[in-house]
Amino acid sequence: MVKIVQATVKDAQLIAKVGRKTFLESHGHSASEDDIKKFVNKTYQEQAIAEEFKNENVQYYIISFEDEIAGFSKIEVNALSPWVDAPAITKLDRFYLLEAFHGKKLGVEFFNSIIETSKQYKQQGIWLAVWVENLKAIKFYTKNEFKIVGDYNFKLSDTRSNPNHIMFKAY
Predict the structure, then answer these.
(1) DSSP letters along 19-87, please?
(2) Which of 16, 19, 61, 112 has its CA 20 to 30 A from that of 52?
(3) How high is the pLDDT of residue 32?
(4) Are the C-beta atoms of 22 and 97 separated by less than 8 Å?
């Protein structure tokens, strides 16, 4: 059984915990151990996540499978992009499933719920940044009608940036 719920600030600790694990699973090899550790410690801490709930345009969602937390997403509605000429678009800022839940078709169901939420806010599309070496994610997004519209260097640390594609799906 799959359950998708909108998270609240009370879920900040859970999101931080799952965020650490999923980031390490998908990006842990993308930089030095020290750079990854610093990034994860800064980004996926309860206080930092809780602070994001103050922005009314930011929403977190949690997906569970058979009563186990499988992943989370973060979207920001009305998040303009320098790569997309549209006044009302959503940014898919984070979209992570724990490796233990890959292959169960949860990503498709989770993704479709995000798209429906974005459309409810009368958005004209959704955009995201994806690491160029994350071929599995790029394939997923391409299959779901995203197009590469730009490139961006994601600053992981003071000494490390990872190249990302900016992808966009219009509605």
Answers:
(1) HHHHHHHHHTTSS-HHHHHHHHHHHSSHHHHHHHTTSTTEEEEEEEETTEEEEEEEEETT--BTTB--S
(2) 112
(3) 85
(4) yes
Contact 56, 1 (CB under 8 A): no
Residue 17 belongs to what domain range? 2-170
How many domains, in total, are found in the chain? Answer: 1
What six digits make up the tokens of 87? 């006044």
Pairing of strands 68-76, 90-97: antiparallel
Residue of 109, 114, 105 whose CA lies nearest to 169: 114
Query: Which stretches of the chain drop beneath a pLDDT of 70?
Result: none
Question: What pLDDT score does 30 carry?
Answer: 80
Give the CATH number of the domain where residue 150 resides: 3.40.630.30
- CA-based max dimension of the chain: 43
Q: Is 160 helix (H, G, I), strand (E, B) or coil?
A: coil
